[in-house]
Amino acid sequence: MNMQRFSELSGLSPHTLRYYEKIGLLKHIQRNCSGHRVYSSKDLTWVEFIVRLKETAMPLADILQYARLREQGSTSLAARQALLEAHQQQLKQHIEQQRTHLQALQHKISLYQQQKVT
């Protein structure tokens, strides 16, 4: 698929896709005879995973580290797992913190609602 279609499917701008290619997150992107990028379904699956990691607040440096490990193939499975497990733990802590914030907001809203009733 061409860049425009890939951009639509991935939700990333062409600028972001070119940037990801430049920094090494997207590698081995094929080109057609005109030199235009041609993306595959594997590229889309990989970009969707990158987006998921970004949306869970994984730092770009860690995503790049994961990408480098991924390039090494099966010899890096344990290292990739460890990286994802560390991120998982950070994400769980963040979610718990957000739950605490949500409870505090709910309590404050409840106080305001009680004041309206009285």
From TrEMBL:
Residues 77-115 form a coiled coil. It holds the Pfam family MerR-DNA-bind. Keywords: Coiled coil, DNA-binding, Transcription, Transcription regulation. InterPro entries: DNA-bd_dom_put_sf, MerR-type_HTH_dom, MerR_fam, Tscrpt_reg_MerR_DNA-bd. The keyword S-adenosyl-L-methionine does not apply. This is MerR family transcriptional regulator. The lineage of its organism: Bacteria, Pseudomonadati, Pseudomonadota, Gammaproteobacteria, Alteromonadales. Residues 1-69 form the HTH merR-type domain. PROSITE patterns: HTH_MERR_2 (PS50937). It comes from Agarivorans gilvus.
